[in-house]
Write a structure and sequence with these properties.
This protein has 531 residues and is α/β, with parallel strands linked by helices. It is 48% helix and 16% strand. The chain is built from 19 helices and 14 strands. The strands form three sheets. Strands 8-7-6-9-11-10 form a six-stranded mixed β-sheet, with helices on both faces. The longest helix is centred in the C-terminal third of the chain and has 22 residues. The termini are far apart.
Length: 531
């Protein structure tokens, strides 16, 4: 006789199976983040970048692959790409295309630059690409290349009267920016790979070779026309050589952050490192901390080009942009307006990050608004207003981002993510201030030696100020869910909050934040109820 079992255990199992079916259905739904694929085939390297994009703010890289087909070495005497060069580039593009197909990345852009513009048989190569891949590869002009670099930089830095320099393997692209808008563009045959091949024949190079390279660059810059009139206020560097200078500086100075975007590199550092690297073999350079093994051979030539460009401009430093042509192509795919201020950049970046990590935008924006209101009342005690305003803006939105790792330790995880995720519009110092404020948002003070890791960006005597930012964030977090929003007033040494009889603040969280706030500011905090 058969019998149907009905027990609490079997009912629970059935509920579990139904829940599993629901969760698997959820997994089958389209992911809310859109992915964009961008391929950049240059004279030295080929790169695939896949970006995730939310509904607001800039996209961020979720996958990257780099190969070194070095097409610049594959031109024969007639100016045609050799069969070996075409084969290597095609295999790379095929692999990139399969990755995009596998990830179901449908919105994609693919461009070829540098030596591909010069190749007599580029039409044949493009036909081969079309027949073997689904990539929309096109060869772009020097002016287009400079413009895409401009779009990428503009999405991550506020531009004024600047000169953008995109140093690739075959060419140096220069673009004047005046009033934040693109102006004259210029392409010079001064790429790092080309200069290395034409001048630095020995390993290590002879002093005569280095001097001949300098003289050639000086002559090319001098003959290129009056693009330095009026002189730019800043040089913004795009491309692997500029980024390599940033990595080298960070490694040699034990810099506390790993990001190079926005880093300012002194010309004297570049000159000193050029002299040091010029005395090494390529193998010795590969052992230098901060030097990429892939770029060790052509790095010296690239540094020499940048050094001569800075001297031509009478500038003492340059700013590294980690965003360039690939980010510019991604921006074109998205079709979003350019940010108009550092605030636009910072808030857009923070909201993009929050959206990508599935944070509650409503809660983060409530914390942000209250933190900024408190900072307005207390700015005499918190330091430079714009600096603290931007740091607190980002910290308010992202204070809970670490919950994606682990809730119990989420302030520490939030701090790490704020320090390391791409955030634009903030200086490196402001990013550190935001990350340290986030670390304290539950009312835990930083230890006395907490700023030691950030020497060069923060001074040890700034710890009281950093704690005040954390105390502001802690108070804002403890009151943010009160509905309607609390009213806040300051009178002398007393800060008063009034909440309505809607959703009251969490008592324990508020008491802890109030004690932290009093220790940090020396102010009494009163909480009352609106009638």
């Amino acid at each position: 006789m058969s019998e149907t079992l009905s027990s609490p255990e079997s009912a629970a199992q059935r509920r579990g199976l139904r829940a599993l079916e629901v969760s698997e259905g959820a997994l089958r739904r389209p992911h809310p983040l859109e992915e964009l694929g961008v391929i950049d085939l240059g004279s030295n390297s080929a790169r695939l970048a896949i970006y995730a994009a939310g509904p607001v703010g800039p996209p961020w890289t979720v996958y990257e692959s780099k190969e070194l087909p070095r097409l610049g070495t594959g031109l024969d005497a007639r100016g045609r790409l050799t069969a070996a060069a075409r084969k290597g580039a095609l295999e790379t593009l095929e692999r990139f295309g399969k990755i995009l197909d596998d990830r179901r990345v449908h919105r994609r852009a693919a461009v070829a630059t540098g030596v591909m513009r010069q190749a007599e048989n580029r039409a044949r190569f493009l036909a081969e690409v079309r027949s073997r891949t689904r990539l929309p590869l096109r060869v772009i002009s020097a002016q287009e290349e400079a413009y895409y670099a401009f779009l990428g930089v503009r999405s991550s830095l506020i531009l004024g009267d600047d000169l953008l320099a995109d140093l690739g393997g075959g060419t140096l692209q220069l673009l004047r920016v005046e009033g934040g808008e693109p102006g004259r563009a210029l392409s010079l045959p001064l790429g790092a790979l080309r200069m290395h091949q034409e001048f630095l024949h020995n390993d290590p190079p002879k002093r005569r070779e280095v001097q001949e390279l300098r003289e050639f660059v000086d002559a090319a810059l001098e003959a290129s026309g009056p693009w330095t009139d009026p002189p730019p206020q800043r040089l913004v560097g795009v491309g692997g050589t500029f980024r390599a200078a940033g990595h080298l500086l960070e490694a040699s100075h034990r810099y506390p952050l790993t990001r190079v975007h926005g880093l300012e590199i002194p010309r004297r550092f570049l000159t000193r490192e050029s002299l040091r690297l010029g005395e090494m073999t390529v193998e010795e350079r590969r052992e230098v901390p901060g030097v990429s093994a892939d770029r060790a051979d052509i790095l010296l030539a690239g540094f020499l080009v940048i050094d001569r460009l800075l001297r031509r401009l009478s500038l003492k430093r340059f700013t590294v942009s980690a965003c360039g042509i690939r980010e510019g192509l991604a921006q074109e795919l998205l079709g979003r307006p350019a940010p108009q201020s550092r605030t636009d950049l910072a808030w857009g970046s923070a909201r993009s990050m929050a959206w990508g990590f599935h944070l509650s935008s409503r809660h983060g924006e409530r914390v942000q608004r209250l933190a900024l209101e408190l900072n307005g009342l207390l700015h005499d005690e918190t330091g430079p207003h714009e600096e603290t305003r931007l740091a607190l803006s980002v910290a308010g939105i992202l204070h809970d981002v670490g919950t994606v790792v682990s809730y119990p330790e989420h302030p520490a995880h939030s701090r790490y993510l704020v320090e390391n995720h791409p955030l634009y519009g903030l200086t490196h110092r402001e990013i550190v201030l935001a990350s340290l404020a986030v670390a304290q948002h539950e009312g835990d003070e930083l230890p006395s030696g907490a700023l030691g890791r950030f020497r060069g960006l923060l001074k040890p005597d700034e710890l009281p100020r950093v704690r005040r930012l954390g105390a502001i964030l802690a108070i804002a977090e403890s009151l943010a869910e009160s509905r309607p929003p609390p009213q806040v007033h300051r009178k002398g040494d007393v800060l008063s909050f009034r909440v309505a009889r809607g959703i009251p603040p969490a008592p324990r969280a508020f008491l802890r934040a109030r004690r932290f706030f009093k220790r940090s500011f020396g102010l009494e905090v009163h909480l009352g109820v609106l009638r």
